Amino acid sequence: MDPLRNSPTTRSLGTSSSSTARPRPLSRRPGLALAGLCVIGAGVGFNIVAAKMRENELAQKKSEASNFYVSVDRSGGGI
């Protein structure tokens, strides 16, 4: 047995046991957290815009003036 490793002062400086360990804060890597929030926000925003466009197109198709409804090809292709 190594008396230096088993002394109370060196044990307190080492890693803590799992029963007293606190959870890691989310702000350990703030840049990564901010980038993740930006990616999630962009995805949510994209889904909201896509849902609104789909809802508006269905509303136009089912309206009383459905004779004037023309479907728009959003593929980006030419004629």
TrEMBL record:
Annotated stretches, region: Disordered: 1-28
Parts of the chain that traverse the membrane: 32-51
Keywords recorded for this protein, A-Z: Membrane, Transmembrane, Transmembrane helix
Source superkingdom: Eukaryota
Biased segments, Low complexity type: 7-20
Protein name (database record): Uncharacterized protein
UniProt organism field: Lasiosphaeris hirsuta
Taxonomic lineage of the native organism: Eukaryota, Fungi, Dikarya, Ascomycota, Pezizomycotina
